[in-house]
Structure formats: structure tokens, C-alpha cells
Design brief:
The protein is mainly beta. It is about 10% helix and about 35% strand.
Length: about 240
């Protein structure tokens, strides 16, 4: 009898170990199910982008991200980025039922800017997602800790965008914007908060048809360019 209990115990331990090895790991995978007969797949999150295919009803997709926010109704500004062949594609979010609420999906893109007539401005290449075109190097020259009063930063430019904003974030989250119409901008020491520490600078391209900043339309999400150190500049400390 004792021998039979030992064999049973060994069998249970072995079975548990195999089951543990075969159990799928936890996953943050977000999935979706197409709810219409034909769902257009586009290269970017906007109806103005080129279409690259269609999905049938009940097709299962993997969700990579979203563009826009859902408030009380679908209004054409909510999009889902999905796995689609070799490159990601975008589908209007109303056409897909997702395993995660829309606003909980990580943001990955933005709608195209529009002029006063509601049309996409000339100059943008809509054959691929604009933000996939916005690639290049980020550099910085100058050191506040060495006594410089300004830093020069460079970043990629995007065909069609006509203004860029460098957002500098202090250690406690205070933000300052340094704007430029080129791929180079200066971060001015006296325009930053007094606090010392490690600051982060980020960049986003915009399009605008007016000098007023509230008319600027952001084309891509902010991208981090780098960090820098800054001393305490409170004049009362001198």
C-alpha cells in the first residue's frame, strides 16, 4: 500500500510540473472581432488615408493601439491599429468589437490635420501612416551644468508639417514649450523653472494655417528626444 501511495504522489507531482510548463503565460494581448461584412483597412487612422484591404465579418484581429477617444458616440475620430500582414493597418473602431474598452487601449496615432474647409492640407504623403514617416535622429549640444545659457536640440522633420514644439518637462512635471519652424530648436535656461535635476525634452510636429497657437493641429504623438541636467537657478540662492 505504501508503495502505491508513493507512485501516486510521484505521478501527481510529474503531472503538475508538465501542466505548469504547458500553461500559457499571462498576456496583455488585445483582440478584436470585425462586426460588419467588409471593414476597410487603411494605412493610417483617418478616412483620408489610402485603403490597403478589407476584412470580412467575424474576422479576428490583434489590436496594437488606438487613435482618438470615445466619449458618448462614434464620430469618425476613433481608430484601431491592428496587425495586418507585414505592416500594421488601421480600421475605424466602430467596426470592431474589442476585448478591452476603447479608451483603455494605448494611443498610437492621431487624425490628420484639416484646413478651414475641412480638407487635409497639401503636402502630406497619405500613402503610408504619417507618423511612420517621422523618423530620424535626436541630438543635443550644450550643457547647463557647464555654464551654458541655452541648449540646441535637433529632431527629424516631417514633410507637410510646418511647426514643431519641443516640450521640456521638469523633475516635478512643470512644462515649458520651445517652438520652431525647422528641425532645430533652442531650450533657453532663463525660461525654465528654477528647480534643479534631470529634465526631459520631447517633440511633436504640428500643422497650422494661423499664427495663433490654438489653431495648431498636432500631427504625431510626442516623441522623447533625451534628457539633460539643470542646476538650481533661483536668484535667491546667489
Amino acid at each position: 500500500m505504501k508503495h502505491r501511495w508513493v507512485v501516486l504522489a510521484l505521478w501527481l507531482v510529474t503531472t503538475w510540473a508538465v501542466a505548469a510548463q504547458e500553461a500559457p503565460p499571462p498576456s496583455d494581448l488585445i483582440t478584436g472581432l470585425v462586426t460588419v461584412d467588409t471593414a476597410e483597412v487603411r494605412v493610417g487612422p483617418d478616412f483620408a488615408y489610402d485603403a490597403i484591404g478589407q476584412l470580412p465579418r467575424d474576422a479576428s484581429v490583434t489590436i496594437l493601439g488606438r487613435s482618438g477617444d470615445f466619449f458618448s458616440s462614434w464620430d469618425g475620430r476613433q481608430w484601431l491599429q491592428i496587425e495586418y500582414g507585414a505592416e500594421p493597418g488601421w480600421v475605424y473602431a466602430r467596426l470592431i468589437r474589442t476585448s478591452t474598452p476603447f479608451n483603455s487601449i494605448p494611443p498610437r496615432g492621431r487624425l490628420l490635420p484639416r484646413d478651414r474647409d475641412g480638407r487635409v492640407p497639401d503636402g502630406f504623403d497619405l500613402s503610408s501612416d504619417l507618423c511612420s514617416q517621422w523618423v530620424g535622429d535626436y541630438t543635443r549640444s550644450g550643457e547647463f551644468m557647464a555654464g551654458d545659457t541655452a541648449l540646441t536640440v535637433t529632431y527629424p522633420t516631417l514633410t507637410g508639417a510646418n511647426v514643431y514644439s519641443v516640450i521640456v518637462i521638469s523633475p516635478t512635471g512643470v512644462r515649458r514649450a520651445f517652438d520652431s519652424t525647422t528641425g532645430t530648436s533652442q531650450i533657453i535656461l532663463e525660461d525654465l523653472p528654477y528647480e534643479e535635476g534631470t529634465y526631459t525634452w520631447r517633440v511633436a510636429p504640428y500643422w497650422t494655417d494661423a499664427p495663433n497657437r490654438n489653431r495648431w493641429q498636432q500631427v504625431c504623438l510626442l516623441q522623447t528626444g533625451g534628457t539633460f541636467e539643470k542646476p538650481n537657478t533661483d536668484p535667491r540662492n546667489k
